[in-house]
């Protein structure tokens, strides 16, 4: 398995060499203008974008990713870290709780591998992995957002509550 993982990591790193050229709407755009980048990323995604599977966008077929139960903690951590780095290069950002261990991320990454998203030239496309419902949260013990949302909803339903009305800090 060691040699296979080395080859897989090499393939994952090489996948980042195959970045598509930017869409023509990006011609003449200031790359440092965050507002314009965010606006054009949205336009590229919703108007010009065609959804594709992550496997097609990255060139890494799902069959190449070993089942999580065949990996030890270090192997799962290594592959998950490399996959996330690669996804970030393709402007995809899976939303994990900040302190969620890398080896536990691997099964989540495999589960989204055949999902379809619009590849973006620039910007960030966040992939939500949680429904933000504390009863359904896939990150028990790690996710703080679900509990904050539940507390805020309870406060909204009960105005006499002593919970302060603050904005919830989402992970993106």
Shape: flat
Assess the beta-strand content as a share of residues.
5-15%
Number of strands: 4
Question: What's the assembly state of these chains?
Answer: single chain
Distance linking N and C termini: 35 Å
Question: Structural class of the helix and strand makeup?
Answer: mainly alpha
Helix content: 40-55%
Strand order of the largest sheet: 1-3
Radius of gyration: 19 Å
Q: How many individual helices?
A: 6
Query: How would you state the average pLDDT, rounded?
Result: 82
Q: Major sheet: size, sense and barrel closure?
A: 2 strands, antiparallel
Task: Please provide a written account of the structure.
By secondary structure, the chain is mostly helical. It contains 6 helices and 4 strands; from the N terminus they run H-H-E-H-H-E-H-E-E-H. The protein is flat, with a radius of gyration of 19 Å. The chain starts with a helix and ends in a 15-residue tail after the last helix.
Structure characteristics:
172 residues; mainly alpha; 2 domains; two-stranded antiparallel sheet; two-stranded parallel ribbon; 6 helices; 44% helix; flat
């Amino acid at each position: 398995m060691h040699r296979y993982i080395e080859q897989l990591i090499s393939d994952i790193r090489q996948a980042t060499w195959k970045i598509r050229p930017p869409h023509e709407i990006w011609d003449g755009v200031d790359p440092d203008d965050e507002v314009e980048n965010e606006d054009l990323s949205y336009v590229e995604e919703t108007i010009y974008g065609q959804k594709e599977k992550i496997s097609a966008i990255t060139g890494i077929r799902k069959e190449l990713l070993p089942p999580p139960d065949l990996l030890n903690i270090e192997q799962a951590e290594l592959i998950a870290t490399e996959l996330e780095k690669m996804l970030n290069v393709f402007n995809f950002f899976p939303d994990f709780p900040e302190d969620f261990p890398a080896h536990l991320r691997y099964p989540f990454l495999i589960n989204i591998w055949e999902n379809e998203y619009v590849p973006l030239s620039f910007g960030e496309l966040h992939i939500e992995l949680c429904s933000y419902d504390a009863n359904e949260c896939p990150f028990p013990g790690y996710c703080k957002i679900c509990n904050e949302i539940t507390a805020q909803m309870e406060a909204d339903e009960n105005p006499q509550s002593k919970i302060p009305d603050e904005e919830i800090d989402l992970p993106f």
